[in-house]
UniProtKB/TrEMBL annotation, chains A, B:
Residues 739-778 are annotated as: Disordered. It is a multi-pass membrane protein. It is found in: Endosome membrane; Membrane. The gene is LOC107553515. It comes from Sinocyclocheilus grahami. This is Chloride channel protein.
Length: 778, 778
């Protein structure tokens, strides 16, 4: 949508137009130094240059892609230097120890800080309580003054208060507070930290895959997101706090990584900390440390070595530990919705569980399409937030299931009916004409209360489905986990009660006869709610293992892992049938971030030269020559091209590649030319700073493949191969198909593959391939 | 040990001497086909050749390393072919569907089969029961005949039976059965399936890292291991059944993968199935599906893409589901040692937990060294098994804690004392002079029963420590999980009771005063046992995340994850301080398998040419030329060299690399020369079969680096860098340091790194580097 780019409000959301994607990524350098021995010292020398040559060299611009291999080389070189100095003095030894432990230190600090966001989770809870109590207070101070303090201590009575006057007053106050909180939240976000909106997970995925978004994980984002998250949740919008908490934890990780040069000066190492931080974020958001680690592994991270697994585990441990010390749920448990079911599940129940999985998959596919379609039409962020908040408040109030806090709703839906349960959902007809029937835990006929609850739940389901589509992606912090789980829990509870009543009235069916004894408790509707919640969340996010672990850590229902797994797998398969992207990948595409999904498998066959730039009718590739380039020529090239990096060749004649120089590094070097060691001032010749790698001398530059080129190509392919994928006209516009010299679109050649062996680095390897391409005339 | 190689019993255990390690691995082929377009069709043509050219081409010999990249290329080509044919006919479409689902099918089958090994776990249990009952029967038929049936139904009474005669008879029968079972087990292993011994995990790790051990996962191994595992456990040896169950599950996975050509013809794809199978194995061994997936990821697998994560998850799900249907523990739970603790843990308890972690780390380091030292001295497998079984039985019988089944012991140690607990460990002095004290759950003074139990437990601890060292690695199926956990559980329970008594007698200490109310239950000794078990297992195996997940899935103790994590991390750190290898890596080294640990980080600096073969005084590299080689020359090279692969060059003059041919492929091709397409019969010229890859033409062959070269080099480095590592004289002998032309050991050059960027494929990349090495004179 071209309107998006005109939106001055959130520049990064305007799509890729504002992101200079044309950077050249030179990665996967061959670190060999030619057959001769002479190259060795020069290579080391060049690496030395990167250490502290000029401030700024080796860093990256905003909205640029990092060079993983250069960062890894830098880190290895640093590590080697520290190791070799270690034995020189006690001070150096201490420094090496500090260096070795700084990884653990930074994840500990991150975990501690993330754990304290649990305080934040408490404050969310209390602010909601406060809002309710406050409106209660006001209503009753107008309605029946003098009884303030009674109702202050027991705000639950408010909604059952007598008379239509108090109800309307309540209604008004509910809407008023919702609007106020929503407005405050969106204003704060708009004024202080535009990056603080949304769930943050799509951006964190992009950042972890090696992209730079300055300020996205900064202190302002941290502060504003923490505050506005409370407001957004308090405003009653259909959103959760879990995704934003991951973002907040990553902000903590990013800020702490600046304390340690090992991490602050190395973007690749910093991403290890961020992976650990996102694990800690989920750990505190759900009280699920293992689920957090798996979430980081499966959903968020791009580069996840086993060392990061341990660090993430530790960060999640520390965060969970802090959470436990604060004890937010008041029950000494890490668990948010603690459930204990007293009956096992039976084999025939797999059928409704799989049905719930199908529902979750359908909901996920529908939600992703609808939400993306709506996000493309967004124009007026503040107005939109206010409108959605107003509609939410007005529609939500009459229905008790939509009026209450979503977490509370999920908890109620998960909880099994017991003798102490006073919920409307548990109004069964007692078979013994007494209350003892519950304590025996037998199935029973539903009383009218259950039927009215079912109606209200159905309405709440429709309401939540519609509102969540419009809410996710608003310019306030908005997570998706809790609303998705609520939708699934409602659907699951409805199915559960239906199956339960079926079992009660038809207990002689062969299915029920075999498993359910008459009078025994056979069906647990709360379990269906849990399975439904997992299925819906799975359909939306397409997580599998991590989701199951999070849900069972949430509920402590270890025995019910098989139903959870069945539902989540079904949900993923059904969802994938309608489009392979989860909501986060869809938002990444929507925002035009350069992200290559490591999970995708590329089976198409493309020649590298199909993707390579420059194409035949393009201007020739801008290259630098090694020795004979003057400063004026260099500045000329930089000012005339928009490339973010240039291959360095020996001379125009031989076209042999010797290195790769980033635009930013050259600009900085020109600015500080006096201190730049390879700059010879008198001759005005700038000996190009060859970053990090020195290839074998006989490689000829034919062209370059950037991440953007690959993304464009994939988009083109997708439109040929996947007719089911939603039509991204948006993208078609931005990435036009390539045209041959005759003006017609170039045909795709399908005989040699572009990608790629086996690893997460498949894209990088294909880049290397091309840079190693040889001129056949040689 | 040179004696090992003389051992005719288990050739594979004799070390690397029998393993022809000298194979040449050609991996990481650049798939580009030169700058010209002409290469494209020839490259595809060569790939076609690999499909079904000659039976046997593209397969591997026993004890050889697979070529990951070639396998991945083959698979991609196959996938592409199926995809392109898909639209041709309904039959082809069905075939493509079958192909797409065969991955899920094979993991489902594997999961089902692994789940049925749970039956096996049941049979282990029953066989032990049978042994005990049977000896009971015999004793009582000699001692007090006529009371058979009383004691048949209540065999627990036996050990409290009257008179020394019955005790001695009991003792004798116990030893007799132990010896019989042990002898039967070792005989079966020796006669039918020598690979069925040990835990199998070191070998599975090696296989998954890309090694071929024929028959290790075959049907004989499966059958014999299943049977002898029962016997070994029944013999009362200090071993567990968990590791062997993983091996059994991998056998199932391997056998089922032969049903699907996608997996049977592709060693890399087969390893994906094996990864899933090992997850299923842990899933059934411990009833821990998530732990199984993490175990596969962290400990066993080498190549673990996210797709394998889902498949493993699914296999573990199916296996857990089968386990649940069989319901082996009779409580509708997946959980082996189900524990419920009723008190939370307190912050000050972290100190004893960390102490337990230190103990676990020390035990692990000690165990690894002692066990490896003992394994190197092993000579007479059958005699050894008999001796160890005899000693175990004789020493174990008098102590009730060593006499009982180890799983039962762990269960007892984990269980908290409640009013219904009749164990000796729960004989506390009641404060109320009645039994009500327990139901109030308060701490109490230990009665003499507890003190005698502590003594017995201490003796059991020493016994278990000593016997486990001698038991692990015996030539019967022997797992390490249960004995390690038992040792940790005993130590933990002792510490737990000590802390509990400390809290009882000194409840006015500031620590206890703050947390423990007088009369309230404050310390849970069972929790200490659980933490200790995790710590000891962690010290031995050096697992972290997967271990915590397995233990908490075992026990269902979700709230106690923080203590578990603290203890396991401590244990790992302490253990790593004494040597970075876990027991499985140590056994891999002991057996001389070619395994490059992806977890290790290489910080040393070595020139590629330091590692490269041929060295200066070696004979020149055996190479094949592309076109002008006659059959006689080829056969000559093959008969004169022992290399397992040869670089293919254009001609002797230019030394340009065009491909790589495996010895096995060439031998097969010569044998079937009539059908070999590139063989021109009349000219007797053998146009060399260039497998899979065609490099850019200008690359010159200087030498080759094989996995063996890298391993040798690492061994050499280790002796310089890690003085703490155990002295592998064994290795020093086998891999002598390289000598320069002057006869002195060559100095190490420390200025350019050998390895390696960032991925699991670091070793392969360093291989590529060298093959890409250019002659500087070019």
């Amino acid at each position: 949508m071209e309107e998006d780019s005109a939106d001055p409000y959130l520049p990064y959301d305007g799509g890729g137009d504002t992101i200079p994607l044309q950077e050249l990524r030179g990665s996967n350098y061959a670190m060999s130094n030619g057959g001769g021995g002479a190259g060795a010292s020069s290579s080391t020398h060049l690496l030395d240059l990167l250490e502290e040559p000029i401030p700024g060299v080796g860093t990256y611009d905003d909205f640029h892609t990092i060079d993983w291999v250069r960062e890894k080389c830098k880190d290895r070189e640093r590590h080697r230097k520290i190791n070799s100095k270690k034995k020189e003095s006690a001070w150096e030894f201490t420094k090496s120890l500090y260096d070795a432990w700084s990884g653990w230190l930074v994840v500990t600090l991150t975990g501690l800080a993330s754990g304290h966001t649990a305080l934040h989770s408490l404050s969310v809870y209390h602010s909601v309580q406060f809002m309710e109590q406050d409106s209660t207070l006001r209503v009753f101070s107008t309605g029946r003054s003098g009884q303030w303090f009674n109702f202050l201590t027991c705000p639950a009575n408010i909604f059952t208060g007598p008379g239509p006057g108090s109800y309307i007053m309540n209604y008004f106050m509910f809407t008023f507070w919702a609007l106020s909180f929503a407005f405050l939240a969106v204003s704060l976000v708009k004024v202080f930290a535009p990056y603080a909106c949304g769930s943050g997970i799509p951006e964190i995925k992009t950042i972890l895959s090696g992209f730079i978004i300055r300020g996205y994980l900064g202190k302002w984002t941290l502060m504003i997101k923490t505050i506005t998250l409370v407001l957004a949740v308090a405003s009653g919008l259909s959103l959760g706090k879990e995704g934003p908490l991951v973002h907040v934890a990553c902000c903590c990780g990013n800020i702490f990584s600046y304390l340690f040069p090992k991490y602050s000066k190395n973007e690749a190492k910093k991403r290890e900390v961020l992976s650990a931080a996102s694990a800690a974020g989920v750990s505190v958001a759900f009280g699920a440390p293992i689920g957090g680690v798996l979430f980081s592994l499966e959903e968020v991270s791009y580069y996840f070595p086993l060392k990061t697994l341990w660090r993430s585990f530790f960060a999640a441990l520390v965060a969970a530990f802090v959470l436990r010390s604060i004890n937010p749920f008041g029950n000494s448990r890490l668990v948010l919705f603690y459930v204990e079911y007293h009956t096992p599940w039976y084999l025939f129940e797999l059928f409704p569980f799989i049905l719930l999985g199908v529902f979750g998959g359908l909901w996920g596919a529908f939600f992703i399409r609808a939400n993306i379609a709506w996000c493309r039409r967004r124009k007026y962020p503040v107005l939109e937030v206010i409108t959605v908040a107003a509609i939410t408040a007005i529609v939500a109030f009459p229905n008790p299931y939509t009026r209450q806090n979503t977490s509370e709703l999920i908890k109620e839906l998960f909880t099994d009916c017991g003798p102490l349960e006073s919920s409307q959902l548990c109004q069964y007809r007692s078979q013994m004409n007494g209350s003892k029937a519950y304590s025996e835990g037998s199935d029973a006929a539903a009383a009218p209360g259950v039927y009215s609850a079912m109606w209200q739940l159905s309405l709440a389901l429709v309401f939540k489905i519609i509102m969540t589509i419009f809410t996710f992606g608003l310019k306030v912090p908005s997570g998706l986990f809790i609303p998705s789980m609520a939708i699934g829990a409602i659907a699951g509870r409805i199915v559960g009660i239906a199956v339960e009543q079926l079992a009660y009235y038809h207990h002689d069916w062969f299915l029920f006869r075999e498993w359910c004894e008459v009078g025994a408790d056979c069906i647990t509707p709360g379990l269906y709610a849990m399975v439904g919640a997992a299925a819906c969340l799975g359909g939306v996010t397409r997580m599998t293992v991590s989701l199951v672990v999070i849900v069972f850590e949430l509920t402590g229902g270890l025995e019910y892992i098989v139903p959870l797994m069945a539902a989540v797998m079904t949900s993923k398969w059904v969802g994938d049938a309608f489009g392979r992207e989860g909501i986060y990948e869809a938002h990444i595409r929507l925002n035009g971030y350069p992200f290559l999904d490591a999970k995708e498998e590329f089976t198409h066959t493309t020649l590298a030269r199909e993707v390579m730039r420059p194409r035949r009718n393009n201007p020739p590739l801008a290259v630098l020559t090694q020795d004979d380039m003057t400063l004026a020529e260099l500045q000329n090239i930089i000012s005339q091209t928009s490339c973010n990096g240039f291959p360095v060749i020996v001379s125009k004649e031989s076209q042999r590649l010797v290195g790769f120089a980033l635009r930013r590094d050259i600009t900085i070097a020109i600015g500080e030319r006096t201190s730049f060691p390879e700059f010879t001032r008198d001759a005005e010749t700038f000996k190009v700073f060859i970053c990090t790698f020195k290839l074998t001398k006989s490689v000829i530059v034919l062209g370059i493949i950037t991440k953007k080129n690959i993304l464009e190509h994939l988009e083109e392919l997708k439109q040929h191969v996947e007719p089911l994928a939603p039509p991204w006209y948006y993208y078609k516009k931005r990435y036009p198909p390539s045209y041959g010299p005759d003006g017609k679109p170039r045909p795709r050649v399908h005989n040699v593959q572009l990608a790629s062996p086996s690893s997460r680095y498949e894209e990088d390897e294909s880049e290397e391939e091309v840079r190693l391409l040889d001129n056949s005339s040689l």
